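Notebook, p. 212. Picked up where the previous page left off. The plan for this session was modest: take the two constructs that came back from the sequencing core last week, fold each one, and keep the raw output in the notebook itself so nobody has to go hunting through shared drives later. Recording the first one now, exactly as returned: residue sequence, then the structure token string.
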Amino acid sequence: MAVSLRGVTTVLLPGTGSDDDFVYRAFSTALHEVGAVAITPPPQPHRLVTGYREELDNAARAAHPLPIAVGGVSIGAAVALDWALGHPERTVAVLAALPAWTGEPDAAPAALAARHSAEMLRRDGLVATTAQMQASSPKWLADELTRSWVNQWPALPDAMDEAARYIAPTSGRLEMLDVPLA
């Protein structure tokens, strides 16, 4: 099913520890080329998932009666998918990059990594943990996360823990999605 995003409000949510600047740069050129109106709300690390849901609700209210497109990266993609499943009449499409997991987070590598990073941040602090992350990450990712981690400190470990507990839509629920998923 083809969907035109021309004039469509498209809300994109960043992944855990990432930010609105990154997700805007990652998606905006392609979205602007098709005429979409890209909105990338900043994460609220002290209330990550609730903040994302409120941003989606606010964008849908502002666009009413037109539906919106939703999406994001990692946990942002998972929250957007869940919101779209709960609001099919308000959603025209979902753009999900690297959804963190489906269903329970227990053994998901992304959830384990988020819990580990949160623990390191609390134990070793921002500077030491950031240095360890930089040493084990590609330069582009290290640069992105260094910038966003500093901006989300000191609530960053709480955001990581919240994300690691998030129960994402299951594969069965995703089969019920009525709009295009890219």
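Okay, moving on. Second construct, recorded in the same format:
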Amino acid sequence: MPNSSIYTTITNKFGDQMENNCGNFDVETVTHIKNYVATHDDFLKRTLKFGSPLQRAKASLLLKIAGVSL
């Protein structure tokens, strides 16, 4: 799991919202994110390991919104 201040900030700010029905995202947005994650799953998981802290935070956020376990 990425250990950076950016990741921690995003997780702290949006983590509870993502756990509770994806926060304030509408159904269409969540559907688009799930489709993106389905087609880019390998890329996102590699980004979690080798990306910059900001890239890791973005990838983690997308995976959490899509409901993919890390």
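Notes on construct two before I forget. The chain has one domain: 5-66.
Flagging for discussion at group meeting.
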